Amino acid sequence: MDVLSVAGRSQRDHHSMISRDTPFGVFLTIQTGAGFLGNCLLFTLYMYTFFALPHKKKPADGILAHLTLANSLTVLFRGVPNIISSFGMRPEISDTECKLVLYILRVTRGISLYTTSLQSSFQAVTIAVSGCKWAWLKNNISRLIQPSIFFCWIINMVMYSEIILNIVAIRNTSDVAFWYYRPFCMVRVPDHQVAMAVLSSMIIQDSLFLSLMACSSIYMVTVLCRHHRTAQSIRSSARCSGSSPESKATQVILTLVCCFVFFYWTDSFLTAYSHFGNKLNWQLGNINIFITSCYPTICPFILMKNENRISRVNFFNSKTRILFSLK
């Protein structure tokens, strides 16, 4: 009798959790759809500029193309499994599919961190004073962008290759006490030395790129503010009434970097609290899922605010000419 009552209570709790997760599933669907479409739209814009309008291409387009590609993959592979789980569905997931999803999530997370840091550093070098000691980097940085990004892809793919060996699909819902957990997949506790090596690599990489991002952003904002004050002192009051390009660039940079740092540390705190505090409850899990998807979702819309090179009319007119030329 006790066994039946426990089983019935467990089933009621399961259905109650599903009903509580359904509104979150709807919200997460909207978030995932908006983030994926926004990143895909911006990525298409950079690719279109590269192939159809090369004269309007900017050196930073390569950085932003990789950033939006990594963000779109992150939003898709993190959002879809959690959406399915939120609506109470339990599809049959193989070990290979789990390995692919979690491996892509880890790699794209590293690429998003690196490209955000690289974008901030690139803009800082671009606006640097010509006579400074970093002038040689200012003249050669455009040629270093693509090799450095591809090198970062390789580093992250190698660093997280250990995850492939330890990821398995969840067969029993009671197996949630493992080192790493997702709705349908888990990571078995690896060898202690291997786990410490991977964790140390992640901490070193994150600390390096976050420090670089912070330093370059502070320097860039300082230079732009100095230039803005100088320009204001020599302009007439009528011409200073509008917002200068320097001010707009500063706002975009500050917003992007502050958003990344805020969501990064919030996600890190919630992850550490859930693992070390043994608090694997559905509320904390949903909050963490939402937080980790915020930056890749809002990033393209922040970038769009400062993207005014190609007018909508010219974009669609050029697209129409290409289509007619192919017929």
Overview of this protein structure:
The chain is an all-alpha fold and 327 residues long. The protein has one domain (19-235, 243-313): Rhodopsin 7-helix transmembrane proteins (Rhopdopsin 7-helix transmembrane proteins), CATH 1.20.1070. 77% of the residues lie in helices and 2% in strands. The chain is built from nine helices and three strands. A three-stranded antiparallel beta sheet has the order 1-3-2. β2 (180-181) and β3 (185-187) form a beta hairpin. The longest helix is centred in the N-terminal third of the chain and has 51 residues, at 2-52. The protein is globular. Mean pLDDT is 77; it is low at 1-19, 236-242 and 322-327.
Key terms:
327 residues; Rhopdopsin 7-helix transmembrane proteins; 9 helices; 77% helix
CATH homology superfamily name: Rhodopsin 7-helix transmembrane proteins
Q: Please state the overall shape, judged from the principal axes of the Cα atoms.
A: globular
Q: CATH class, please?
A: Mainly Alpha
Strand content: under 5%
- Main sheet strand line-up: 1-3-2
Structural class: mainly alpha
Integer-rounded radius of gyration = 23 Å
Largest sheet: 3 strands, antiparallel
Distance between the termini: 75 Å
Instruction: Examine the coordinates and then state which fold CATH places here, giving the name of the CATH topology.
Output: Rhopdopsin 7-helix transmembrane proteins
Number of strands: 3
N to C succession of SSEs = HHHHHEEEHHHH
Task: Please state the average pLDDT score.
Answer: 77
- Helix tally equals 9
- The CATH level-2 architecture is identified as Up-down Bundle
How many domains make up the 3D coordinates? 1
